[in-house]
Each structure stands twice: as C-alpha cells, then as structure tokens.
Amino acid sequence: MNQLPKTIEITGKTPFGIFSKHIKIQATNESKGIHKLWAREKIESLTDVLRQRYTPAEKKAIRQSITQLALDASLVSKFTSLVAIDRLITRESGKALYTEAITSKVSAPATATNSLLWSVLGFITLLLSAGIRYWEVR
Questions:
Q1: Is 47 within 8 Å of 60 (Cβ atoms)?
Q2: pLDDT, tens digit, 9 for 90 and up, residues 74-118
Q3: How far apart are alpha carbons 1 and 12 in whole angstroms?
Q4: Which of 66, 76, 124, 138 sees the fewest Cβ atoms within 10 Å?
C-alpha cells in the first residue's frame, strides 16, 4: 500500500476530445531541491497570513516560523538574508595595513532647495489671492 505505482494515467476532457496520458514513475530517494520549493511556498503562505490582523504575540510566532524555515532551507525571506564571505586573501601575510587619517570633512548643503524663499513666496501669493477675492465679492 505504501509503494508507488509503476505508472499513472492522467485523463480528462478537452475541447478537442478525450485526453489520456500514461506516465512511468521511477522511484528514487535522490530528490534534490523539492524541500526548497516547499519551503519557499510555505514562507510565502506564512507571509500572507502575517499581513492579516493578528495579535502581536501571534505575529511574533509567525515571524519566528518564517525565520526558522528560511534558515533551515537556506532561503532569503523578509526576516533573513544571506551573507557572502570571500575566502581569498589578497594581502600578504605579515604585511601591515595601510591607514591614513582624513584631514578635512566634506561639507554638504543643508537642503537641496531654498525652502524658506518658496514658503514666503507661497504665503504672499495666498494673501494676494485672498485679497483679490475679497475685493471681487464686495
């Protein structure tokens, strides 16, 4: 009862008639990547659940489930990331690091626009339009 069948038959109706296909099944224990596909779908499902209204404690538990699942499957999620580590050493062993003090700081403007000028001009325009409207109504 727990063994896979040797073949399966897929049948159905299509606009062109009856469809039938026989597929041979090769049983193997070397399935690669299926656990990552399942984990990715499970993480997506849990992320959808997280967007719904739950208590903070329930949301925390869901976040922990997503994090643990992503770590177990080595996947990136909303709460996890991957770090690449370069093992190539480019500096010779025993050679000192080169350091240099920065003598001056880079000055940057306080803002990208002259917001005070534009605020004053907008206020004056508002006063002028209110005055014109007042004189038209009188």
A1: no
A2: 899 989 988 888 788 777 778 887 788 777 777 766 666 777 888
A3: 26
A4: 138
